[in-house]
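User: Sequence in, structure out. Go.
Assistant: Echoing your sequence, followed by the structure tokens.
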Amino acid sequence: MDFHNADHSSANSKKLSSKEKKLKRREELAKKKAVDEAIKAAYLKDDHLADFPAFHIYDRNGLLVHLKSGSGEHLSSPMKRYIQELLKVNMEGVYGPQWAAEEKIKRREMVSREALYIFVQSLQSAQLDSINNREAMHKCYWTGNGDPVVAFVHYRFIVEEEIPVVYVYELQLEQCVQGRGLGKFLMQLIELIARKNNMRAVMLTVQKRNTSAMNFYTSKLRYTVSNISPSRVDPLIGAEKSYEILCKTFAHEAKTKLEEDGCSGAN
């Protein structure tokens, strides 16, 4: 046996292995940089709604509203109160005893500089009074140009499992405008915003007790339970958790990391 050649071959193998590691590391860094730049570029835009003029007005099913963009760090005091009120009306029952602690978290989240909003304002305020009894609509705080806000979406651009995504923190509608296609319209807009800004998926968290919301996302919008959701990571742990993480992916890598079996990770 030629030990010299064997040693030389071994050295080349180690050198090749080292080169491969450096190359892989370089690729990983380049990929991370691209993801970070995509998130940064998305946040540099002042108004994501401006890219989609067809979504500025919703006039269907007896509902006439207009949409506008906003940000957490520029919320007016009336708008903050409005969001807090609507969240409490819609979510206190779903969270049950956990609501007191959850409400504090949501209040901090809603004013973060990373928080982006789509606000929905009614163009038929007089009609709202005539076609709905007052029990169906909690007290609205009048904001902006005087049109009452009847729904909002709070979303952010973040990274999940090395994938740039739009995460929907809140989608909240007044009871009087529910069931008219507005929620689906808003989620379609969010998905367009995600694609336009090179995000690879839309994700959100739903409380298990909120069966109507779960059905809305999974049946009507075809979202799936993500493999980073507790129930997919570990069924035993998932059984103890009160929520599921849902997703809709737009790219193969996102589907592999966020939807398919065998690639689970912690959230």
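User: And one key feature?
Assistant: The first strand starts at residue 57 and ends at 60.
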